[in-house]
Amino acid sequence: MNFANSSLNSTLPAAISLDKCGWPTSVHSQRPQPPSIRYLDLCSYPLLLLLTTIGNVLNLLVLRLDKPFGSKGVYLSAVAITDLVYMWSAIISYISNYDGEVHGLPRPAIRDMVDRLNGFTMFLQETCVIASAWMIVAFTLERFLAIRYPLKHLIFSHGQRSLYVVTGVVSVAAGIAVVRLVDYYWFYTQFIAADPRPPRVPPRPKILLEWYGTYVWALAFIQIGTFIAILLLNALLLRVIARQHRVRRESLHVGEHRSRGVDRGAVAMLLACSLCYLLTQMPGFAGNVLFLLNKACIHQLHPRTVAVLAPILNVLLNVNFSANFLLYCGANPRFRKGVKVLMGNQPLDSATDRSTSDSRRKSLESTRSMSLVVRNCRLSISSKLNFRMP
Q: What average pLDDT does the structure give for the chain?
């Protein structure tokens, strides 16, 4: 029996081995990334970082001009902050990669800095990825309630409650990604910073290994579920908006339907942000599906494919965190006016007076609409009871 097994193993090529799924792996899978693909990320990141910094600072300043500072300002400001944190936390790995390209390998000082900060930056990036997408989901739900159930939205929705939602989203996202901190710095203390350094990485504790494995699976499911949720919720939001437009055209009381104070600018900004997310994260969605199929031993994901796709996915993710300012300017004329106010091309007083008059006009229209609703209710009740109400 032993002789048969040894003779069978001797017939296998020396460079071929089998993984846990029984698929062949070889040294060919360990080739480095193609240089042209690698340079795509290296060249695009500084430009996108500049766009993120300038754009999101302007986003925060323009959103603060809205009086009152409502749920729209809270959600979009939170998205701007997570965008800034994500892009600036990625600068550590960019410095290491750039220094490695210039000198062949990162210099010892750069490598030591990256080793110390790498776990914290990975934790920040993955927290921002989860939190930013979930805030788009929360903002979509908030806009849906504002359009579909406007009276309930006026009662239950305000900036303070939106701030609580944002705080909860960031806390849950950080709680999910905290395993990055624990796992990496266990590896750092047990191997990288150990003196003397052991010849090989010591095995993780069982509880840490199971925790990290669960996190890898959960992260893929979270990203897939978030993508589907944003797609379905925005499709539902567009359906509700289209239905209201159709009712408005068919109704004789046009003023009653227009008096429902729907912030069209906020809806346009949300839809633009969601569309950017869906377009840039569609390859990542497919990659997560392939990752789960690979983990489940259903479809083998070739390592060379991963090496080619990884820089492209990084660039698309950076675009998603960088383009919001351009999207807001293109989608919302009121946001463009706010930018002009900041640049000094339009006096702040005129913009404030215009917004004040608009709010007064909307409040008057809302009061007139409520009076019409009450009058219609009274007339319908009187007609059913066959007597005239005063």
A: 78
